[in-house]
Every structure is written in C-alpha cells, then in structure tokens.
C-alpha cells in the first residue's frame, strides 16, 4: 500500500468493506434465506422467485432514474459526502435489520432488502464519483483497479466466515440452526462494511465541485437539461457509454448465468460456493494486473483484451459439458471481470468534467443498470427459439462485438477534450 496515497488507499478500502454486501446479500446468503422464508410461508417456488425478480427490477429502476438527478445536486460544494453518507447509512442499517425480520415474513424481508439495495447501490454511485477527488488522471486506472482488487479480496473474508458458520450450524461445533447462522451473516456484513468505511469518511473529501447559485435543486434540474441540450459537446463520453452498455451487459449476464450452468452440470450448492470463493480470489490479482498493463498499453487496449476474453468465454460455454469445463469457464471469467469493470470506471472518469463527476456517474449508473436487462432477454429468446440454452449464451457474443466496434470509435481520454468538443 506504500505506493498509494492515504486518500487513494482510503477510497479503495471502501470497496474492501462494501463488497461484502455484494457477495453475501446480493449473490449468496440472502437469496437462499429469502427462498426458505417464502417456502415456509407457503409460497410456491416460482412465485417467490418472481417476487424477488420484481423487487430487483423495482429498485434497479428507481436507482437508474435518480442517479443523474441526485448526482447533479451532489456536484455542488459539500454535497457529495452528504449524499454518500445518507445512502451508506441506509444500506448498512437495513442490511443489519434483515437479521431481525421474522422468518416467515417474506414481504418484510423484500422491503428491507429493497431499501438496503438502494442504499448500497446509491452509495456506490457517489463512491465512484469520488475517484476524481482522490487521484490524478495518470494514476486513475491503477487506483480504480486497486479498488476492485481489494473488493474481491475483502469480500472473501466475511463470506468465508459466514459460510463456515452456516455449514457448521446444527451440530456440536456451532449449536445453532441455519436460520440463525444466516442472520449472523447479515450482521457480519453490516459490521464489516462499517469498519472499512471509516478511512473513506476520514480521509476522502470533495475537491472538484460547482459553487451553489441559489436553490441547488432547481439549479440541478437546469444543469441536467443543459447537459441533454448540449449532448454533442459530450459526444466521446456518450459514445463510450453506448459501448459500455453493450459489453457490460454481456459481462453481467455471463456472471449471473454461471450458477445456473453449474446447477445443470450437477454441482452441489457447496461446490458452487467454493467455485464462487475461488473466483473472487483469482479475480483480485488479475484486476491489479489489468491496471498495471493499462499503464503500459492504455486502458482502451486492455478493455479490448477484456472484451475478447469474454467472447472466448461465451464461445467456450457453447461447448460446456463437464464440471472441469465449468471450472475452466469460471477461471476465464475471473481473469477479466474485475479488470474490465475497473478500467471502464477509470476510462469514464477521465472523459468527464471533474466538477460534474456525480452527474455523469449518474448516467454511468443508468447505462450499467439498464444493461442488465437486454442480455438475459437475448439469452432467453435465443434459447427458446433454438431449444438449447448453449445457443443463448453464445448469442452474447453479438453484444461484445457491438461494444467492441463502438469502443473503437471512442478517442483516448487525452484526445477527447470533452468540455470543448463539438
């Protein structure tokens, strides 16, 4: 950590803490806990799954719509930390409160989960926006990659602790049931998140801002409208967002579909958790490697590499047959999932006007959120008309090709001259 400043390390450590939410609440423990709760309450499996899907769609839409609006307000002096703090407290509080919801009250679980998700994802919008305040353009790719790397490493620790408690629950070693063990995991997540957020609050401050001119709310809407009117001025930026929309959709869909593939191959829940854990560990050094290689070859070239790797992943998935194949697929994903996300963030941060970072990261959030819709639909449609799910995954190659073509037309950040571009 000695090669990074206190501000850079403090910013990156937030990812170390907050990523526990992503793996424990979003991916692993909460979905299983919720399904058990809904089943105990008498809900059919397909109904409870549908309700969870509706819940995710609702908070995704809310955040996508609010992102640019809240981000525009947060660009005023002193507002970024306030918005970050509000969403952080919201996320942490309701993550912890999940542990106290009566087991068969699946509806209250979904409500608390929705609020926690709004808090966690909302805080990340402003966290991403802080990258322009903690480092320089030259170091941005490395700092962004470090954040993702620490996130992968940091999240594995509370995840491993939680999984050990859950797997050992119900015997002489840990004399509690699985339900209580899952509730403990929710509390562990909140505590871990809080502890490693302290440096962020202490050492990271807004350096780039816009001075207030009257009431910030109506002024923010005027600025947002002006951005849309002058969209030609930000041609490079929105071209990148369009490319990002396509290739990040493919990335997200591959990650989300991997568990289903593992299940189809006959992997047990324990085996899938082990593979998920190993994937997190492998992804950490590769995220750092992407950052270092971006310094040597440029972020854009490394984004090309990441996109091409995912095209290989989709092609390999088409021929997936054995458990060994699944391990190979998971490791291929691990080599690039952190790198492509980290470099997308730093590349975008270099393109935007720094004093408007939150407004533009709000747009970044919109494109990232709505990108999670098209990929699954493409997979479902292709699988339905062909009768084979492997064709569905292979169809994602189209998204990566489109993203690659559009990205090739986006100039390097130093050439873009966003604020003066015509």
UniProtKB/TrEMBL annotation:
Where does the chain cross the membrane? 12-34, 54-76, 83-101, 107-127, 148-168, 180-201, 236-255, 267-290, 302-320, 360-383, 389-407
Q: What does the record say about its membrane topology?
A: Multi-pass membrane protein
> Keyword set for this entry?
Membrane, Transmembrane, Transmembrane helix, Transport
**Coiled-coil ranges per UniProt:** none
GO cellular component labels: plasma membrane
Q: What is its main location?
A: membrane
Q: Which Pfam families match?
A: ATG22
Q: Where in the cell is it found?
A: Cell membrane
Q: Name one GO molecular function term.
A: transmembrane transporter activity
Any keyword Transmembrane helix? yes
InterPro entries, alphabetized: Atg22-like, ATG22/LtaA_families, MFS_dom, MFS_trans_sf
Domain spans labelled Major facilitator superfamily (MFS) profile = 236-422
Name by which UniProt lists this protein: MFS transporter
Organism source for this protein?
A: Psychrobacillus vulpis
Q: According to the entry, what is the taxonomic lineage of the organism?
A: Bacteria, Bacillati, Bacillota, Bacilli, Bacillales
């Amino acid at each position: 950590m000695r090669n990074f400043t206190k501000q850079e390390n403090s910013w990156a450590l937030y990812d170390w803490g907050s990523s526990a939410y992503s793996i424990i609440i979003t991916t692993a423990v909460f979905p299983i806990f919720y399904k058990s709760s809904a089943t105990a309450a008498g809900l059919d499996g397909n109904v409870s799954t549908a309700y969870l899907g509706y819940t995710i769609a609702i908070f995704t839409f809310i955040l996508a719509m609010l992102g640019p609006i809240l981000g525009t307000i947060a660009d005023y002096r002193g507002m970024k930390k306030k918005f970050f703090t509000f969403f952080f407290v919201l996320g942490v509080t309701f993550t912890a409160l999940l542990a106290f919801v009566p087991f068969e009250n699946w509806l209250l679980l979904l409500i608390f989960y929705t609020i926690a998700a709004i808090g966690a994802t909302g805080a990340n919008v402003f966290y991403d926006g802080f990258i322009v305040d903690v480092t320089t353009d030259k170091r941005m790719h490395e700092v962004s990659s470090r954040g993702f790397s620490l996130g992968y490493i940091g999240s594995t620790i509370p995840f491993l602790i939680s999984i050990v408690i859950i797997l050992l629950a119900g015997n002489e070693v840990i004399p509690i049931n699985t339900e209580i063990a899952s509730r403990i995991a929710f509390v562990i997540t909140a505590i871990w998140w809080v502890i490693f957020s302290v440096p962020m609050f202490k050492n990271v401050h807004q350096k780039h801002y816009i001075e207030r001119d009257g009431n910030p709310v109506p002024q923010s809407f005027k600025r947002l409208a002006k951005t849309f009117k002058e969209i030609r001025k930000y041609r490079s930026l929105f071209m990148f967002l369009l490319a990002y929309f396509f290739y990040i959709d493919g990335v997200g869909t591959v990650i989300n579909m991997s568990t289903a593939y593992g299940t189809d191959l006959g992997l047990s829940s324990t085996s899938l958790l082990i593979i998920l854990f190993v994937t997190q560990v492998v992804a950490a050094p590769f995220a750092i490697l992407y950052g270092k290689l971006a310094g040597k070859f440029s972020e854009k070239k490394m984004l090309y590499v990441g996109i091409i790797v995912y095209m290989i992943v989709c092609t390999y998935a088409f021929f997936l047959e054995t458990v060994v194949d699944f391990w190979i697929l998971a490791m291929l994903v691990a080599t690039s999932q952190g790198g492509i996300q980290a470099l997308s963030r730093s590349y975008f941060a270099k393109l935007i006007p720094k004093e408007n970072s939150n407004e533009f990261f709000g747009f970044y959030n919109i494109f990232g959120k709505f990108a999670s819709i098209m990929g699954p639909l493409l997979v479902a449609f292709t699988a339905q008309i062909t009768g084979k799910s492997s064709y569905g995954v292979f169809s994602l190659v189209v998204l990566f090709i489109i993203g690659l073509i559009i990205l090739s037309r986006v100039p390097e950040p130093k050439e873009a001259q966003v604020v003066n571009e015509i």
